[in-house]
Amino acid sequence: MRVAIIGCGCSGMASIKCCIDEGLEPVCFEKTSDVGGLWNYREDIASTELGCVFKSTVINTSKEVMSFSDFPCPKEFPNYMHNTLVNKYLKMYAERFDLVKYVKFNTSITAVQKTEDFASSGQWNVTIKDEKTGKVREEIFDAVMVCTGHHAKPHLPRFPGMDNFKGKIIHTHYYRKPFGYENKRIVVIGIGNSGVDASVELGRFASQVLFLSTRRGSWVLTRLTHYGVPRDLKRNRFISSFPLWLRNRLMENSCDYVFDHKAFGLKPAHRALSAHPTVNDELPIRITSGSVIIKPNVKRFTETGIEFEDGSFEDKIDVVVLATGYDIAFPFLYESFAKVEGNKISLYKHIFYPDMEKPTLAVIGLLQPWGAANPVVEIQCRWVTRVFNGKVKLPDRETMWRAIKRKQASVNKRYVQTQRHTIQEDYIGYMDEVAVEIGVKPNFFRMFWRDPKFWYTNVMGVHLPYQYRLEGPGTWKGAREAIETVWERVHAPTQTRKVPSEDPEVAMKYVVLALFVSVLAFIFYM
Predict the structure, then answer these.
(1) d(CA 259, CA 344)
(2) Under 8 Å CB-to-CB from 501, ≥6 apart: which residues?
(3) Cβ count near 13 (within 10 Å)
(4) Res. 521: pLDDT tops 90
(5) Is the dihedral of CA 25, 28, 33, 39 positive or negative?
(6) Distances (CA, A) of 106 to 8, 135, 171, 229
(7) What whole-number distance in Å separates Cα of residue 315 and Cα of residue 311?
């Protein structure tokens, strides 16, 4: 069974590997000359079809939770990796499993259409273009995996007077580094991750101040929590089982513990888990130092400035940066289900279209999880390839449509109504949903009775992707060890200097002193 894979970022590489694991024949088409997708940094900004990180981008998820389930990041890698190391990890993954030989580089896909006998064959006619020669050809494939992501078509909002503005307007899609923006008066519109990253970086170079405009405000998470522990290493199955109101309260308290969102002009009206989080460590100090000033939504542009909805006006603006997200688009898909309305597309578990006669086309990575992307796209690929080879069956059409409508209703009820949240998913819940379809979700009831210590590690400890390699199809012998040694890999990159051990006698003196102070406090205040 020949499978066409479109794109060779993290989704494409996971697709290749899972096809191999399930005895399929993958052929991956990559428009550029290298693997890595979004993480393959390019100075070139000519193409609107290629997403790319900033030069300074550091990933927002720590290495242990962003690893593929059978390939942990090297222990010497930092917990939060610079984009160059993320790209290196992806290339190490490709080398470890010998994936590159299945990739056709400098090759794009211009059309994917059903064959005339699709109802019986499930095959696809794929139009392929050689980016170097311009030659076009067609090939027939038994299945297609779309791995182009959702960071290709910038969303460009319109504001009154925008066309008359004489300064420069740029979307973060085209932003790479701060050089060339020195001594400029800058407004950044949008407070998502890209908007805040651009703001804190440009704030060091802008003339006096940079204005960050936000419609609703945002809850801002820092990467590290108490004692320097990566925030996502505190996420586990136990906490995820709490009711939504309690998880909201815990997250909001955690955010305000770092800095008071109301005092900093950032507190939104919505709850913390009603919008995708913004992750940034520098924003509080940039606001405190005055290099970033928070402003409300833009009301209108003038030739030289911007008026905000609170009536304030900033003149002599040189640059406006639009950090306004992306529109979902699949320009090479001509099927009716690929039509996007309101940035919504109806797919069963964000992957399959229910009305296809044969489930031989899958969209990988078209979701926004509260967590790392790599494990999510990998588990999608593990499921999809088993559907392709017939080992797993999808539910009937009506069941899939009911599930889609329930999901859409749930999203509409919980999340702020923006185009960004149409593909939002809770990380652990979604991973478990797909794992059940494959048969790889651990049996925690059985684990509790047979191995209670390991049960505690998996339920009360860090939720790790290696859990989904413990049992069922595609088990990995190293999964248990990877789970049990996670903290060794977490501490390895920071323990680069031997710290002198504390004298036990000195430590005991502090204990005695603490007890003495406690007794005095009890006597005087009771």
Answers:
(1) 35
(2) none
(3) 31
(4) no
(5) negative
(6) 11, 12, 26, 41
(7) 13
Neighbours of 297 (CB within 10 A): 13
Q: Would the pLDDT of 513 be above 90?
A: no
Mean pLDDT of the region 384-397: 97
**Residue 413 is encoded by which pair of tokens?**
């009820």
The first and second tokens of residue 65, run together, are 């939770």
**Order of strands across the sheet that contains 186-189:** 168-171, 319-322, 186-189, 210-213, 292-295
Residue 213 burial (10 A CB sphere; 0-12, 13-18, 19+): buried
Q: What does 429-464 look like in DSSP terms, one character per residue?
A: HHHHHHHHHHT-S--HHHHHHH-HHHHHHHHTS---
**DSSP notation for 176-228:** --STT-TT--EEEE--SHHHHHHHHHHTTTSSS-EEEE-SS---EE-SB-GGG
Convert 498-514 to b/e letters by CB count within 10 Å (16 or more is b): eeeeeeeeeeeeeeeee
Length of the chain counted residue by residue: 526
Residues in Cβ contact with 467 at an 8 Å cutoff, skipping those fewer than 6 apart:
69, 442, 458, 479, 483
Arithmetic mean of pLDDT over the chain: 92
Neighbours of 316 (CB within 10 A): 10
Q: What is the DSSP letter of 159?
A: -
Please name the residues in contact with 163: beta carbons below 8 A apart, sequence gap of 6 or more: none
Position of tokens 């505690």? 456
Strand order in the sheet with 2-6: 103-104, 25-29, 2-6, 143-146, 361-363
Reading the block at residue 481, the tokens are: 């060890």
What is the rounded CA–CA span in Å between residue 404 and residue 464?
Answer: 27
Residue 408: pLDDT over 70: yes
Among residues 28, 29, 36, the alpha carbon closest in space to that of 374 is found at: 36
Judge contact between 234 and 225, C-beta under 8 A: yes
Q: Tell me the C-alpha distance between 410 and 426, whole Å.
A: 12
Rounded Cα distance between 464 and 66, Å, is 9
Report DSSP letters for 374-386, one per residue: HHHHHHHHHHHHH
| H or E stretch covering 313 | strand 313-314
Q: Using CA atoms, how far apart are residues 85 and 102, in angstroms rounded to an integer?
A: 23
Report d(CA 83, CA 89) in Å as an integer. Answer: 10
pLDDT digits (tens, 9 = 90+) for 438-482: 999 999 999 999 999 999 999 999 999 999 999 999 999 999 999
How far apart CA 349 and CA 366 sit, in angstroms, is: 10
User: Which residue is listed with tokens 């003196």?
Assistant: 509
438 C-beta neighbours (distance < 10 Å), count: 21
List residues bridging with 292 in a β-sheet: 210
pLDDT (mean) for 307-328: 94
Tell me the C-alpha to C-alpha distance, in Å, between residue 312 and each of 168, 277, 296, 323. 21, 27, 9, 21
